[in-house]
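ingest -> validate -> predict -> emit
validate: passed (alphabet ok, no gaps, 373 aa)
predict: started
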Amino acid sequence: MKSASFFQIGSSPLSARASFPIGFFILGVVIVAAIVCGVWMLTKKLLDYKKSDAYIKKQLERMTTFKDVKKFSEDNRLTPAMSNVLWNMCKSLKVPNINYLIKEPETLEKLFRDYYFIFKNSGATPQDIDTLFNLTFTVEKISAATKNLLSSKQLPLESVVFYLTHESEQFPLYVKINNNDFVGLEVPKFMVNNPNLKPPLLERLRFITKAQNGMTYHFTSRAIRYQTNPDGQILLIIAHSEDFLNQAHRNSKRESIDAECILSPVRLARTEEKSKKSIKNNQDEFVIAQKEYPGKVTNISSGGCCIKTNLPIKEKQYLSVRFPTLEIHEHVIGIIRRTRKLLDESYNLHIQFLDITVESKNKINAYAFKYEI
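emit:
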């Protein structure tokens, strides 16, 4: 018992508590608070510096390292093949830090275009080139997401806005006025004179536009009135809209085109004798008919296309398409996902490709990215 009292402060537990050095405790709290505050201020200062123009400029003045590519690939979930192509491109073209260059779509577009020809002429396989196109489109979507088009107030004058009818036909209108109150779109006289094509007033209309970075946006807006300028120009006045939805979810680059194509009926022949014109896909056998019909392809990507034809082909039908304009002479097998009847009694066929060679995909992508037209 006597030994225990040796460590006791004061003559009793009560007096020991009364003798507790409260000043040291308060001092300790103040020191800890000062340290936490100092760390917070240093962290905030560092974060602010990393957002500053000086820091960004410094990052863009140094070349991309393997560590930069690894971080970019992990952050954006690139496949190992795409990551490898990106690293080779950064080394070959001495690309500035890719993690900061991503906010400069015009620079990236030129770099990928230049590397496409270098890569193609270096003996790259068709599969390698396909990987490059997949990487290019992925980077384009990432870059576009850093500069989203959020409002119709951002539409530049003379830019094209496509009006979508109830039948989803697209007609180009041009931005002639864009102020704080409304947007004025030039409407062709043939549309104004056609009740079926004239955009109705006081309704929410659907539009599609493409930003300068190449990304496509859908938006809706209410039509307010028509006005005729002294020069006879007819404008549709629409309210401003922030209902913008980008199409970054697409899996492949899509581009408008106005070219002839050749259609042929296709049927499944799982149990029939093999035909000389058979094409295998997912263990199914497609037999292409000898008959051929003309069509016009209006937009295309490596994953599908839209074709205008006079044939009333139903949805979920298989068909073969050839694209002579793009020097694609193979039979590309597809399935019709949607059929729309147009005002001129023709039809739009929305086709998903099921069987297409890598070489043909590369030709389509080269057109879609405007590398080879």
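The radius of gyration is 31 Å.
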